[in-house]
Design brief:
By secondary structure, this protein is of the alpha/beta class. The chain contains five helices and seven strands, in the order ββαβαβαββαβα. A seven-stranded mixed β-sheet has the order 1-3-2-4-5-6-7, sandwiched between helices. It is globular, with a radius of gyration of 16 Å.
């Protein structure tokens, strides 16, 4: 594939993957950057954790809204999913088991995180869609998937101007049937932001991995 995005454009921080106790792939939103989403790590337990934040070309993983027909967002969408896979495979090749690799994204990155996990089902450490939903129209065909008990968070404001609530609810229904340990958070109002409850959920997952201080 002729990649639009590149896994080589990945900002890395924390422990080296070869000696880490776990890793988190952080996926930024539209118009943001790897450096922006990497700042989320400042709010999370970090002892022995490797963080990897790939950077989308021109700050956008795919050009149109997440709910348009899939082909309208190609080839950027396939390239974005390929980059997530390359980063994940690299962490696994460095010695981390899949159940110690988490994927978390915000907004466009949150959609990408959920979509990647559903298309590549296995037991991940966790998957978090922060203000996100699955990509594509609600009638997008979804082959059966088993995430083998992966903790998954789908969270969004009820009136988020970028992520319509019906798509969030539909994503919840799909993921409920996909072998996840699913938690959902629907916040009142219309803030398009990372909520404290989402950070708390991530902290709880990572606290089981971090090295003693």
């Amino acid at each position: 594939m002729n990649l639009i995005h590149s896994a080589s454009d990945t900002l890395r921080s924390g422990s080296p993957p070869s000696s880490a106790r776990g890793a988190v792939i952080l996926l930024h939103g539209r118009g943001a950057s790897a450096r922006d989403i990497a700042g989320l790590a400042d709010w999370l337990p970090s002892g022995g954790i490797a963080f990897a934040a790939p950077d989308a070309r021109q700050g956008t993983w795919y050009p149109h809204r997440f709910f348009v027909p899939l082909e309208d967002n190609e080839p950027s969408l396939s390239s974005a999913l390929e980059v997530v896979g390359q980063v994940a495979d690299g962490l696994h090749a460095a010695g981390l088991p899949w159940d110690r690799i988490g994927i978390a994204g915000f907004s466009q990155g949150g959609c990408l995180a959920l979509e990647y996990a559903l298309r590549h089902p296995r037991r991940y450490g966790f998957v978090a869609g922060l203000s996100g939903a699955l990509i594509g129209p609600m009638d997008t065909p979804r082959p059966p998937a088993d995430l083998q008990g992966t903790p998954v968070l789908v969270a969004c404001a009820e009136h988020d101007p970028h992520i319509p609530l019906p798509f969030v609810r539909h994503s919840i229904q799909v993921l409920e049937k996909s072998g996840t340990d699913l938690q959902t958070c629907l916040f009142p109002g219309g803030d398009h932001t990372v909520f404290q409850e989402e950070i708390d959920w991530l902290r709880a997952r990572l606290s089981r991995w971090v090295a003693p201080s």
